[in-house]
Amino acid sequence: MTNLASSPLLDAEALISTFGMLGIMATVFAESGLIVCFFLPGDSLLFTAGLLVANDEFLHQPLWLVMLAIAVAAVLGDQFGYAFGRKAGSALFKRPNSRFFKQENAERAQEFMLKHGPKALVMARFIPVFRTFIPITAGVGRMTYRTFFLFNVLGAVLWSVSLTLVGYYLGQVAFVRDNIEAIVIGIVLVSGVPIIVEGIKMRRRSRAVARDVSTAPSPTAETELPRP
């Protein structure tokens, strides 16, 4: 298999071949809870892990152990993000844009959380960027810990098991093994669709609000009385 990128931090296969199981867990933890690590591979990493287990390449642990380790790392990552959000508070979303922080991402996560409530923790597991920002947003909003923990565990288990199993079973198909680079690129592109859709919806809502504000009558405007 050829590398997809020069950096092992961005290439799922290179990352696994270089750092093994610990590399997978560290990456999942960082992408789940560290606000500056939203760019790390998530979906493609789990798919590749399952595929490598199926082919007994780089990963020689049993499938159940790999999925368990990923789920634990995902839960702990979200726990860190939640704690960080509670400590940082709303000031976190007022910080200026930088290379590793975009205000737009924080605003989308807030809107997504307001729309879906605790279910957003499960749904965001399958959406890049949201996967990082949603647990932090839950902390900023001071979601009750019991609710957060329940949906955090549920989302982490569903995500780790589903994508790793898909990679494992497809990894036994000759066509997938022979076209792994294209398959992984396809996963990355497909996983980015939800956030693009949410971005479009957010822009439409913002334009609608701006249009309503611009067309609303001024509260200070005086009504001209008819002349006798």
Give an overview of the whole structure.
It is a single chain. With 228 residues, the chain is mainly alpha-helical. Helices cover 69% and strands 0% of the residues. It has 9 helices and no strands. It has helices at residues 12-33, 43-54, 63-88, 103-116, 119-123, 130-140, 145-170, 174-178, 180-215. Helix 2 (43-54) packs across helix 7 and helix 2 (43-54) runs antiparallel to helix 9. It is globular. The N and C termini lie far apart (89 Å).
Q: What is the gist of this entry?
A:
The protein is mainly alpha-helical.
Order of helices and strands: HHHHHHHHH
Residue share in β-strands: under 5%
- Rg calc: 21 Å
Q: What's the quaternary structure here?
A: single chain
Structural class: mainly alpha
Tell me, briefly, the overall form.
globular
Blueprint (SSEs and pairs):
Layout lengths: L11 H22 L9 H12 L8 H26 L14 H14 L2 H5 L6 H11 L4 H26 L3 H5 L1 H36 L13
Helix pairs in contact: 1-2, 1-3, 1-6, 2-7, 2-9, 3-6, 3-7, 4-6
